[in-house]
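Sample intake sheet
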Amino acid sequence: MNTLGIYFGPQVISIIETRNRQLINNIQISQALISPETLTEEKVPEEIKIITLLKDELRKNKIEARDVTVSLSGKDLIVRTFEMPIMPRQELDNAVIFEVKKYIPFKTEDLISDFQWQLDKTIQKNRILFVGIKKETLDKYIYILRELDLKINSIEYSAFSVLRLLELAGIKEKGIIAMIDIDFAKDDEANFVVLENGFPLFSRDITFAGGSEEVAKHEEEQSGMISDKLKREIHISLDYYDRKFPGKNIGKIFFITNPDYRTDLEGFIKESGLGVQFIEINKYIGRPIPFSLAFVKGYSSALSKIVTRIKINLLLAKERTLKKISAERMPGALLVKFLKSNAIVIGLSLFICIAVLILGVYRLLPSQIGLEIIINMRPAVSTVSADLSSEELIAINSTYKTKIETMGNIIKKRLYLTPQLDALPRVIPKGVWLVNLSFEKKEEKTELILEGMAYLGDNEKELGLVNLFLSRLKENPAFAKYFKEISLVSTGRDQREKISITTFRISCRDYTRGIR
């Protein structure tokens, strides 16, 4: 039975048809054909252009296979790995969503996500592999494929699709290994993935802008030697991995790349003290094909029957989300239906409950009357003896006043941050979020520290946002009433993945009194 693999890359859409792992059709469509500059109908939606191009290619190549596995490039996805404490499985879903909010710049409600976990016994924590995609992006790809009358088996991350080639090549190495797929000349998205016993620890996407021209020039000048930029990106990936996972040393690197780079790459990797092995793609596809990373990713997607340890499937994640929403809405609908169809039973049940309640009150009434008679028969006892002197009465009164005053002081000096914390979300501008709050109360000093980040893609605008937040705090009655000094202590820049973000620290102080 023939199967399809489709890779939506940044430069090329690759459609691969296979039968029993043998290549049947290889279609490569340039993304440039979809840009408005190449089409007369500039107002035609991008999805329609893609559908038209793919439909023509499927018909032209007489492709009748309907089952398809889709792989997407990293530009469409959010891929993160992080650690979490060991907890019951039923609590893990909500805990992962809560944790991942630290790593994404938008609401998790806008995502379709899936995750996989593995226990790391060395640190006694769960290692989480998280993959997410914006709902509108996923819906776009699903719409395209369903309009082509294709049955989607899975939607996955292309770097994880390529891992099937390790299985195809019979590579069963344990421990920590890395896989690098790279095609510098064709300027496709390269991937660096580190695995521990087949489970991803780390992944990084690499894009070379203008790569083909640079490599061509480099080959003319240095007789086909690999570009220094390629080496530099591999070195950056290795350094980044070592900083994130100290002590988890890579034993061997597997390359899927153009044969022209192999000699130089092998020498470069061996200089780093690592083992290196190259995977021959043409050995498995049945005929020689010029190397193309877009082809490799499309072909790997078509090998969906080859099972790997990665079970991430964004299509199933979307279906689970829809079922969850339906389940949350179902109890109300079932209750209305039950009430309509069982009105007599419900009425009879209510009548029985009321009758039992009335009977209980009736049987309890004589006991209550008897109790009241007994209470009325008790001799009157004064709380204070009539034999006490005035001095003793004054002393007792003074003791009670002291106790009341002490309790009043305790109540008055209680600390309340409620108005200030309630005011924060009302004054914080869009593009700014807080990552830490700390509060310190001493005898003559009260201080609230706000630490956060701002992101607009421009340093000057981000600093403007921080200053706007500072001025709003000063103008807010809840803060101005209790904090006499509100100041910006520090600002800085932080790098998150490939995004540069402005960080800040604001101090709110009152040296004369505490918060009442």
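Comment: The two ends are 75 Å apart (CA to CA). The first strand starts at residue 2 and ends at 8.
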